[in-house]
Amino acid sequence: MSHTIAVIEGDGIGQEVIPAAVDVLESLDLDLEFVEGDAGDAVKEATGEALPQETYDLAADADATLFGAAGETAADVILPLRDAVDSFVNIRPAKAYPGVDAVRPETDLVFLRENTEGVYSGHEDDLSEDLSTLTRVVTTSASEKLAEFACEYVDDGEGFSVVHKANVMRKTDGRFRDAVVRVADEHGVDTDEVLMDAFATRVCLDPEQFDTIVCPNLAGDVLSDLAAGLVGGLGLLPSANIGDDNALFEPVHGTAPDIAGQGVANPMATVLSAAMLLNHLGYSEESDRVETAVETVLAEGPRTADLGGDADTEAVTQAIINEL
Ligand code: GGG
């Protein structure tokens, strides 16, 4: 069966790592059709719109989307794109690979981040010259939907950690915590609760205490970046935004303006996101092959500067393709 993949590079190193991941996917010789869409800072400058309607529709209609990064226009691009694919959870694995000089080589975590609300729901206002406000939205229904997904995701009797700050944000994180724990109890899935500030310390000191982490939107964004610091950097973290009928895959990193345009960005996070895309579309064997190829190159192949090497994006991408 043929699948249509929407490909949206966005800005900065998105324009370097997305073509690399598409090269890897094309080398597998599957029946995938790639359709390109524009979005991001440069598109906004040229057209006034960071996410043209046709790009939104492209993502909504495709079987899956591969997205790079957005800079200043992140709120106008990433959030609507996640909405276009109706994604309610952002899966962010943070795993230390052999051969990478990781701060905590024993790290193997998966963040299940609520993906529709919290402080990312867009209700922000300037009320006076001195005052800006932000409304934090938490619904029982979105929290329950995330929890239902988490219960199926763990499916191994392991349970998961619920990370929140309900001792301070009693109404919003209280609602989130209560809904997630209730759904887990109904499914007979064990949970342990951790306040998000304490989690930040504990995961740095001893990441093996944790496995799957279920958390609100902003906490998931920040804490997964923190976990990236434990495993060798943001160049290694992929992500999947999953909806009921659609999905979007993107590296956790942003546009990296300091290195954009030089051809030296690490393509691993995007290639691993492409592996998650393959798995989502049912190509589990090819997905495993891509992840194994990445692992092999990380262990013994060329690496980019963020991992202490001097190889460029193209050399690392070619090394991955050679391993497939
Ligand atoms: N590739 C994802 C990206 O552009 N990340 C930058 C960013 O600002 N992300 C915010 C988010 O993931 O919600």
TrEMBL record:
It comes from the Archaea. Residues 4-320 form the Isopropylmalate dehydrogenase-like domain. Keywords: Oxidoreductase. InterPro entries: IsoPropMal-DH-like_dom (IPR024084). GO terms for molecular function: isocitrate dehydrogenase (NAD+) activity. The keyword Oxidoreductase applies. GO terms for biological process: isocitrate metabolic process; tricarboxylic acid cycle. Belongs to the isocitrate and isopropylmalate dehydrogenases family. This is NAD-dependent isocitrate dehydrogenase.
